[in-house]
Amino acid sequence: MNLTPIDETEVAKVPQFPLFREGAEVILGRSLEAGEIVMPVAPSNREMFGPRGACLISDGPLWVSDTGHHRLLGWRNLPTQDSQPADWVIGQPDFNHEGQNAKGKPGRSTLSVPTGICACGEGLAVADAWNHRVLIWKKLPESSNVPADFVLGQAHFTENEPNRGNQAAANSLNWCYGVFCHQGKLFVADTGNRRVLIWHQLPEENGQPADLVLGQPNMTSRDENGGGTPSASSMRWGHDITVWGENLVVTDAGNNRVMIWQGIPTENNAPCAVVLGQKTFDSVEINQGVYLPSAKSLSMPYGVAAADEWLFVADTANSRVVGWRKPPSILSLQGAESHALAGQINFKSKGENRDFGLPKRDSLHWSYGIKVWGNTAVIADSGNNRVLLWKITK
Fold first, then answer.
1. How many domains does the chain divide into?
2. CA-CA distance, 259 to 214, in Å (whole number)?
3. Does residue 3 sit within a domain?
4. Helix (H) or strand (E) run with residue 91 in it
5. Residue 42 lies in a domain
6. Alpha-carbon distance 75 to 95, whole Å?
7. What is the pLDDT of residue 33?
8. Which tens digit of pLDDT belongs to each residue from 316-370?
9. CA separation (Å) from 183 to 98, 162, 178, 345?
10. Which of 171, 315, 338, 356 is most open to solvent, judged by the fewest CB atoms within 10 Å of its CB?
């Protein structure tokens, strides 16, 4: 482990990440006091356990996937104070209960390991990973336990078998962790099937099949890396999705890389144009095969977000966020160094909370997800059981 104390003279050498250097403006979740240890916490209207995703819509509402408590927490408006309590909960009878599917059977408002979450049309979509489904609300929920309107991956809300108890298909899901909506299209990271599914229009009925698949040659295949060696078209653990400019971006966490296509693919199994984090399309090693990271390497990158010219990647196992600035041609990004850094004092550091100490306003511990709305980055700092609201500076 890298236990080197922080040298403040090194801080000035770090490329400026377009976030306030002072760290998060608002921290949601219970703050640790000196001497306390990060542990699973009892659910409440402010305490979280391993949050993995968040979705800020304008200046509110804010919805967070409180993954370990198997629920969503909602704030009516953009929180302005540390540990501000949530206004709403979905997935549990109240703020003080937890458990997969509320310790019952799956239904229209229950959850089991919710992860990815995004605005979807006028509503909301959630990757309900361990129920092997995506829940969609046609309108944004504005109270607790609003039932979802329809479900993808399953024929009915009461079912939750992986791939509907059968082989992979255009209408089934298996450990789906990511969901993203863009210009009327829906994208789902169907992680357990090692693929990304695309609906050309927002689905409108239960179990509606996807139109296109990436990462596999067809809708029934689910082998790791398409059954072969890693390539520009294969995936091992696709996890999160965004669109940067007009280019599709997918984090392939199991191959320790980020895949970027030129435009939005229109054919099954289309190869990406560029990978970040690896030198070549067939390279997959953690931090490119060495212990310490670099500006070019990644270790299990789970989250991704685009904001104007910047692409932000939650480099989860390195407990950091790295950023690439968009060049005139994305092809020049192949294997390129990242241009900015947050959570660590230099590109060779990867310690949790930098020095394995208490969380700080600008430190990270298994940064799992990142999303951006306007000038606010929302970071799911999963290992610290908190969500950071970090203002982006231009």
1. 1
2. 11
3. no
4. none
5. yes
6. 13
7. 60
8. 999 999 999 999 999 999 999 999 899 999 999 999 999 888 899 999 999 999 9
9. 35, 29, 17, 37
10. 356
SS3 135: strand
Pairing of strands 320-325, 310-315: antiparallel
Which amino acid, 389? L
SS3 184: coil
pLDDT at 14: 47
Tokens of 269: 């199994």
pLDDT at 20: 64
CATH number of the domain within which 85 lies:
2.120.10.30
Which of 65, 134, 71 has the alpha carbon at shortest distance from 99? 71
**Angle of CA points 49, 55, 59, to nearest 5°:** 120
Amino acid at 248: L
Pairwise CA distance, residues 335 & 278, whole Å: 6
Domain-located, residue 374:
yes
Q: Tokens 């995506």 correspond to what residue?
A: 134
Query: 3-class DSSP state for residue 304?
Result: strand
What is the distance of C-alpha 51 from the center of its chain? 10
How many angstroms separate the CA atoms of 190 and 103, rounded? Answer: 25
280-326 pLDDT tens trace: 999 999 999 999 999 999 999 999 999 999 999 999 999 999 999 99
Look-up of token digits 């019952």: 104
Q: Retrieve residue 301's tokens.
A: 């990158």
Q: Kindly list the strands in the beta sheet with 212-214, ordered across the sheet, starting from the edge strand earlier in the chain.
A: 176-182, 185-190, 195-199, 212-214
Sequential DSSP letters for 16-53: --SB-TT--SEEESPPPPTT---------SS--SS--E
Structural domain containing residue 255: 8-391
Token digits of residue 213: 């698949």
- Residue 142's alpha-carbon distances to 145, 195, 203, 224, 317, in angstroms, are 9, 33, 22, 40, 35
What is the length of the chain? 394
pTM (2 decimals)?
Answer: 0.94
Give a yes or no: residue 122 inside a domain. Answer: yes
Nearest of 167, 271, 152, 131 to residue 201 by alpha carbon:
152
Residue 315: per-residue pLDDT: 98
What token pair was written down for 152?
């993808």
Instruction: Name every residue whose Cβ is closer than 8 Å to that of residue 268 and which is 6 or more positions away in sequence.
Output: 212, 213, 214, 216, 217, 218, 219
Look-up of token digits 């969503």: 72
